[in-house]
């Protein structure tokens, strides 16, 4: 089967592609309107669909928590503005999910009938659908750089605990200059930098310790990083 040669998507490390769009919160100039803030830009397949509705309830429930982490939400689908408004009103008035109800979606939901923005961000994937955006999640930092990307198929709702973990993990790695091991959660050990010289390799082998931490081997050293220290450093409000 032939590949779609026009398909492209922003890669990790790229600057977030710029666009201007209309949303449920007014006109958006992206990413310039969000300089100095983290942004989670996400696509959904369509308004008034069950999986998307469940996701928007959870996104709405996280708005204040993410704001305290200096992060804003921006949603997008190929539906029109009137559809967006009617759907978000229905969510607030009628939908209860996972203990959440009367959820007011205060973040912008972009109208993208032309699919221009969705194509710009690689959300229209022809092998999945030519008329709907997949469940893409882009983590964009305060310098407007794409830092992480997650894609989900149409029939699988997102893992919101993982979305929060990725955001906090990126902020933690930036703030402390560390890497994060498999299954990392706030308060767990983090990985310290690799040795820069052979002398440091031998010192780690001899002492069994790295920079303020412990080593399993010279190349695998960790240290404690309490959750309270993370919250203080990255100024979670």
Explain the overall architecture.
The protein is α+β, with helices and mostly antiparallel strands and 237 residues long. The protein folds into 2 domains: 19-162, Glutaredoxin; 177-233, 2-Layer Sandwich (Antioxidant, Horf6, Chain A, domain 2). Helix content is 30%, strand content 22%. The chain contains 7 helices and 12 strands. The protein has helices at 50-61, 63-68, 81-94, 116-120, 160-176, 198-207, 227-233, and strands spanning 19-23, 26-30, 38-43, 71-77, 96-97, 100-101, 109-111, 135-140, 146-152, 190-191, 214-217, 220-223. The strands form 4 sheets. The chain has a 5-stranded mixed beta sheet. The N and C termini lie far apart (51 Å). Residues 1-5 have low confidence and may be disordered.
Residues in helices, as a percent range = 25-40%
CATH topology of the largest domain: Glutaredoxin
Looking at the structure, what is the overall shape? elongated
Chain-averaged pLDDT: 89
What class, by secondary structure content? Answer: alpha+beta
SSE sequence, one letter per element: EEEHHEHEEEHEEHEHEEH
Distance between the termini: 51 Å
**CATH architecture call of the largest domain:** 3-Layer(aba) Sandwich
Relevant CATH superfamily of the largest domain: Glutaredoxin
Strand content: 15-25%
How large is the count of helical segments? Answer: 7
Uncertain parts: 1-5
User: How many DSSP E strands?
Assistant: 12
* Text of the CATH class of the largest domain: Alpha Beta
Within the largest sheet, what's the order of strands? 7-4-3-8-9
Number of domains as seen in the coordinates? 2
Largest sheet: 5 strands, mixed
Rg: 21 Å
